Amino acid sequence: MQDETLKKERQFHDAWASTIDIDGIRVNDYFEACTAPENRFIVQQMGDITGKRLLDLGCGAGENSVYFAKKGANCVAADYSQGMVEVALKLAEKNGVQIDGCTVNAMALDFPDNSFDIVYASNLLHHLPEPEKAIREMHRVLKPGGKACFWDPMKHNPVINVYRRMATEVRDGG
């Protein structure tokens, strides 16, 4: 069951990645626009990220990774979808910043213990068959005193549920 779920997620996100036009991505809007209160809050909690090693877990198209790199972080863009990692790397190049990219399973990270100062994940946990494993992995790869910052759409949120009913063509069911 878990392998089938992960395979479905990878196929969906690889297909989506092939349609992304990076010229249309406005990186700063993901953190600074009035429609991004969750990320504005998270950035406040992170504090100064200059020189920090940051894992963007479930990086998607890389908007977050690029934003963090622009703010001075040493960012690793990691996703289960190789297609999304490739888009993130192209977006970084377009924005004149350097990030590292890798394909990973969030429930079994291929990083040593205590590797990162910050782990950031947006819209990740609801895609995973065992999100608890991902949270344990985040904790494992964080340095002592490090921060895990993540947010996810909750199924009891009425606004998210309206979106889910309307956006059936662009969603993977998660």
Structure description:
The protein has 174 residues and is an alpha/beta fold. 41% of the residues lie in helices and 18% in strands. It is built from 7 helices and 5 strands; from the N terminus they run αααβαβαββαβα. Strand 4, helix 6 and strand 5 form a beta-alpha-beta unit. The radius of gyration is 15 Å and the shape is globular. The protein starts with a helix and ends in an 8-residue tail after the last helix.
What low-confidence regions span 5 or more consecutive residues with pLDDT below 50? none
- Overall pLDDT score: 88
H-E string:
HHHEHEHEEHEH
Structural class: alpha/beta
Instruction: Indicate the proportion of strand residues.
Output: 15-25%
DSSP helix fraction: 40-55%
Radius of gyration: 15 Å
* Gross geometry: globular
* Alpha plus pi helix count: 7
Distance between the termini: 15 Å
Lateral arrangement of strands in the main beta sheet: 3-2-1-4-5
